[in-house]
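As promised in the previous annual report, we have extended the structural survey to additional targets. Below is the entry for FBD domain.
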Amino acid sequence: MEQKFKTDGLGLSNRDAMNEDRIKNVYRTLTLHKAPVLESLHLSFEGRTDCLDVGIWIATAFARRVRKLVLDSFYQEDQTVTLPSVLFSYNDSLEILKLKCAIDLDFPSRVCLKSLRKLYLYQVHFKDEDSVSNLLCGCPSLEDLVVHRYSNADVATFTIAAPSLQRLTIEDLCQEGGYGNGGYVINAPALKYLNINGFIDIESCLIDKALELVEAKISNVSDIANENILESLTSAKRLILHLSPLEIKVPTGKIFDQLVCLELLTHEREWWNLLSIMLDSSPKLQILKLTDVSNFTSQLPFLFVSTTPLSGNLLI
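The corresponding structure token record, generated without further manual editing, is:
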């Protein structure tokens, strides 16, 4: 039976006064662990840390067949760490990877992370669009992807092409400057769960239809020059829409023929128009949930103007 060594997340950081000793201690700690599998490793370091030192830590962890790796680099005088791309050229043990903050990602060629199932990218910086593609295309087993980013901070178009992906969460944090307004392309045919938040005043959001989609949550979306968000969600069984029909393209003639549960946030402008369209387009709808109803009584006449009767429950 394979022996396993679990660290419960090893957190290590370096400071000015003890920088060199700390780096040596990290390496020494890693090399002392002789178990064939290192379950979890969490490294926290400053953005000015030498990328060679970070590379040694990662290489040592990979040699211990680490399964979960968290790299958390915090900004120090706006300096960042570039991860050595060669380390990701082949790995068959890593299952969970979290990258946070002051980390630059430059992948001139495709990575190979054969067993990676979960990937978390929190405000990291990609050199170019090829680096995004080479990372995601090199994860054939990827199922969960979480992205928190500024849409215009690095690449103009952030493309997610992942045939195996099942759960996707994207939160755009919005900022001025950078690469214009930025945009997204999502091609994930096996997607079952989608969560989009904060797509405001970006250039585009184009999503290929996912026929296996079970649930989608769309929040704080407005002023997108070119998008097909709602049109791509017609296969969903559950929709949570926190948006105004004035701020997003509402498809006409499209049938949400799998939708059984719909939740709308009612403080959005003209939310009742979105409700009317969704009711007419959802013949199998069973559960309707209206949340944050601040002026429900005065808007009641707008609610049930629908040719499709609701066969289930209305939750308010």
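The helical segments are 19-32, 51-63, 129-136, 271-280, 296-303. The longest helix spans residues 19-32. These points will be discussed at the next consortium meeting with the crystallography subgroup.
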